Amino acid sequence: MNFFSEVEKNIERRFSKWTEKVFGPAASDELLVVHRGILDDIESQVQTAYRGKRIFPYNALLIRVVSADPARRATFQAAFSQDQRLEKDIRECLAGAGCELPGGFSVAIETAESGPRIFEIVYEMRPIAPSAPPVQPKPEPARVIVVRGKANQDSFTLDKLRTNIGRLPELTDASHRLIRRNDVVFEEGADEVNATVSRGHAHLLYDAAHAEYRICDDRSEYGTRVFRDGRSIEVPPGAPRGERLRTGDEIYLGRACLRFEM
Asked: Which of 87, 151, 156, 239 has the smallest number of CB atoms closer than 10 Å to its CB?
């Protein structure tokens, strides 16, 4: 049974029409013969697995077309390689047959001056290289300075995508499992100002798309505000975007205060 019968007919009509327009009728006839032969060869490699599932057991195809005439080799290369035309046709045929392609599937086209037949196909199953981990954006240089309250440092360099602010170095649940670490830590029991900083009060978030920092309130008890140009801006509790920061902004965490510099 020809898996590709109907799909192949549509592809051949499209390929014939295009090659006749670009290369002329004579070249088109020869190209169509080779094109059909390649698809038939590939069809012969399709396997029927459990419960009729069709699989193609190779993910790398090297298709070598042979001609002693340099002009014909150039025509073959152009007709099959341009816009990955032959690879797209192969993919369409296999998809039309309900055949799942293996990961990393690719088709390479080359020409040669001599060979045992007008074309040959080298089938391979190559290992798939693991994808590279995504590159993490590097935050712009910035820092916060403690203006009011007692923290574990006087100032903090912001060098992470997220910087947590709170009143304890670590927060745990009822089973003593760690649920959060704070980077900017206001001392527990230091004074009345520090008491207005919640244990998991807020966090600074670096927005790589806009190269800016934002302050987000983590549903703190006494709230978070930004003081800028003589006015106070409330940071909505739990809002994922928070409030954008500008250099010189004062961030009030309850009654404690940090100054943002960038």
From this structure: 239
Query: Is 90 a domain residue?
Result: yes
Q: Helix, strand, or coil here: 171?
A: strand
pTM: 0.52
Q: In the structure encoding, which two tokens stand for residue 213, read together?
A: 């920092």
> Which pLDDT value is given to residue 140?
85
The residue out of 90, 124, 158 marking a domain boundary is: 124
Q: What is the pLDDT of residue 100?
A: 82
Yes or no: say if 99 and 34 are a contact pair by the CB < 8 Å rule. Answer: no
Instruction: Dig out the tokens for 32 from the structure.
Output: 């169509």
Q: Which domain holds residue 55?
A: 5-124
Packing angle of the helix pair 5-23, 85-96 (nearest 10 deg): 160
- CATH number reported for the structural domain that contains residue 10 in this entry: 3.30.2320
Half-sphere exposure of 142 (CA within 13 A, CB side): 27
Write the pLDDT tens digit of every residue in 112-139: 999 899 999 999 999 887 877 777 778 8
Angle between helices 70-81 and 5-23 (to 10 degrees): 130
Of 64, 94, 124, which residue is a domain's last? 124
Within-domain flag for 43? yes
Whole-angstrom distance, CA of residue 84 vs CA of residue 87 = 5
Residue numbers of the chain with a pLDDT score lower than 70: 1-5
Strand order in the sheet with 119-124: 106-112, 60-66, 119-124
Work out whether the CA dihedral 73, 78, 84, 86 comes out positive or negative: negative
Residue type (1 letter), 94: L
* Neighbour tally for 93: CB within 10 Å: 20
pLDDT, tens digit, for every residue of 79-109? Answer: 999 889 999 999 998 888 788 888 889 999 9
Please report the pLDDT score of residue 96 as a whole number.
82
